[in-house]
Amino acid sequence: MKIIDAHCQVGNGVDIKISAEELLREMDENEIEKAVICPVDKFMAVYNREGNDYIIDLARKFPARFIGFAGINPWYGGKAVLELKRCLDDGLKGLVLYPFLQGFLLNDKLVFPLLQEMEKYGRPVYFHCGTLVSAEPYQLRDLAENFPKVNFIMGHCAFSDYWNDVILAGKNVKNIYFETSFIWPDMISNIIDKIGENRVIFGSGFPIDPVKTEIEKIKIACPGRSGQLKIFEKNIKRLIGEK
């Protein structure tokens, strides 16, 4: 069974300092075929172009191992939209937004220009979700209902403060997907039971959590091979347009 890790951070930031070589070693040790990578902290918040150039270069250097997502701060306005277009045209497959780090409410109209662009490209948007006030599940639901043609990934299944809102916020909104890093196995099982395997996506959150631990959580929460195949591989490939 192939495994694609749908959320890893890589780069030389302030709080996170992890190289591509370190990530590749971790992937090899855990039999992960590919990983979705995005910029770290200061490159997500301020130095977007530098961070995205690093991700673009890695995706080009290791096309069989890395899938790049752009990190863009919506406060840059028109410049943010231009940077997004540049990244997507240069081969990146999605967008990562981090409301707490970047300083906005998840469903603020500030992000609308970026989402309008993502709709044109048909690419997914990953939101770090679960932070008090700035990144709550019902805020993501509001955004998803306003942009029904954009696929949204709820990062970390809103770990940890809003775990009890996750299913109610996302159940009847078909364009919300659930990324599994940090959240507990029983919560993953509950999402599978109530919403189904087709909208659950494996992510490790590397380097914050050990990849091996995150993989084992999926095997515990979803023991069936067909479900694991969707969660580990098929669902994320469908979102980024890969066969």
Short description:
This protein is of the alpha/beta class and 243 residues long.
Explain what the structure shows.
- The chain is built from 11 helices and 10 strands.
- It has helices at 20-29, 41-45, 48-61, 78-89, 99-102, 112-121, 137-146, 166-170, 185-194, 211-221, 225-240; strands at residues 4-9, 11-12, 17-18, 34-38, 66-71, 94-97, 125-128, 152-155, 176-179, 200-201.
- The strands form 2 sheets. It has an 8-stranded parallel sheet with strand order 1-4-5-6-7-8-9-10. A two-stranded antiparallel ribbon has the order 2-3.
- Helix 9 links the parallel strand 9 (176-179) and strand 10.
- The two termini are 15 Å apart.
CATH topology: TIM Barrel
Number of strands: 10
Low-pLDDT parts are none
| Straight-line N-to-C gap | 15 Å
Count of discrete domains? 1
State the fourth-level CATH superfamily. Answer: Metal-dependent hydrolases
Average pLDDT taken over every residue: 97
Question: Which oligomeric state applies?
Answer: single chain
Order of helices and strands: EEEHEHHEHEHHEHEHEHEHH
Kindly estimate the percentage of residues that lie in beta strands according to DSSP.
Answer: 15-25%
Topology diagram in text:
Blueprint: E1 4-9, E2 11-12, E3 17-18, H1 20-29, E4 34-38, H2 41-45, H3 48-61, E5 66-71, H4 78-89, E6 94-97, H5 99-102, H6 112-121, E7 125-128, H7 137-146, E8 152-155, H8 166-170, E9 176-179, H9 185-194, E10 200-201, H10 211-221, H11 225-240
Helix pairs in contact: 4-6, 9-10
